[in-house]
TrEMBL record:
Annotated protein name in UniProt: Tetratricopeptide repeat protein
Species name: Oceanobacillus neutriphilus
Xref: InterPro entries: TPR-like_helical_dom_sf (IPR011990)
Amino acid sequence: MLKGNRNKTKKKTNNVTPFIPEGDFYYTKGVEAFKKRKFDIAIKWIQKAIEDKPYFPLYKCQLSIIYTETGAYHKANQLLTEVLRTGEYVDCYYLAANNYAHLGLLQDAKKYAQMYLDKKPEGDFSDDAAQLLDYIEIGDEDEDDIFSLEDEDELIILQETAFYHIENDDWEKAIPFIEEIMEIFPEQKLAVHDYAQALFYTGKKEEAMHIEEDLLEDYPNNLQSHLNLALFYYETGDSNYLEHIQIIDNIYPIHEEQKLRIAEVFAKTENYSLAYERYQNVSWEQAKRRASYYKWYSVTAYHSGYPSKALRLWEEGLRRHPKLSKEEGPWAFKD
């Protein structure tokens, strides 16, 4: 009798239809994991959903959002581009604009934000897109007409004088010129960040940090604020600098000044492997006028295992900028 029961049970089991999850099940599990900020698990579930329904745009958009949250902006935009190739899922335009802004590709960010507003002016992301456009200040060719030639000459003189003092770490002398730029040319937003640095390095550290923290509240994607706060926190022993380093590590700007500044911040915070990669992508023609370029690139090379390259950089820096002779060389910096 027992044997017969076993056979019946076996027969019954064999007739059970196996449970095969579909894309919606995977997607739901992925969203649940995402809400709990378990990003690795969320990515695995959403990828399974995409495998099940590879042409369903919602799944790829959700995966792009997870990538954005983890700072993988290039991966996020690759997915959004795939979605836009197969159809017009309008939200992709804003999501892509946001990623481009994080990467420092402001022209692309502006283009995609405007495309979103053109196609969906009352959409869920319309306010965010409008704010992003307000933040992005790209100099059009027409802006050359804003100032008279005399104004342009005055701005150039002030900027070059401030630059000279900053390059020589003479922050006290730089301050009045930076203040004058801020007063006469308020549209020169970068001057505010130079001013924050000047305050920090002349002892007004809390005031400097407050300036950048306030700016970051209004403009969370502000690269210069992330750069300054990474340095300020690092130099005051605050571990919050690591959060800003992580954000900066996912930004690849097109402007040489921004590329150089990122490399230098990585070097100054002892993230030498990150700094070395970025220095290799900096234009020498743009950077050679800076003594700081030779100083921090040589330090980076030395601590990245390239002592010969460090020496070559240092010697070239000495030839171009004799003031470097007052410093001890890249080997003097701690690892």
